[in-house]
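Team,

Forwarding the record for the chain on the shared tracking sheet. I've put the sequence and predicted structure together so nobody has to dig through attachments.
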Amino acid sequence: MPISGTGRSTDRAAGFTLIELVAVMTVLSILALALVVGTGAGSLMGSDRGSTAGSAARTLENAVRTARATAFHTRVPHGLLPRPDGWQMLARDRDAGGWRPVDEGQAAGLGWVINGTAHFPVPPLAETPPRPLVVFASDGRATPFTVDFHTAADRFHCATDGWEDLACARR
């Protein structure tokens, strides 16, 4: 029976349509994902908040992703070199026949164990050109390596086979 003047029926049951429910669920899913990503709750190392070694491992993961992507997109090999103040990103300089600094890192005060060999970096000599321990080729592959970040309180082990992303976990 139509409502007078509108031409619409009053027999329609109150509720939500399937499209309305899907739209609401999509919005809630996006908000939940933003919350997880924003707080870092989705990290494999979620319990390392405030951990110096864990922070250094996350920073190195980001540096590896950046170096790999930059090498791939610029078609110029990049590398990482442990330094007393952390790590340094280098780019291959074909004109000079060596490597040039690109970026300074942030893993200060930590020991590195790279491929089983301890590295407590020393300041570079002015006449010694920098040379990375880990190289990222322009085709996406990298030097396979493992890195252990350690402090008195905790230790993180990071590893890659050269093709996969660097994966870090508390030890």
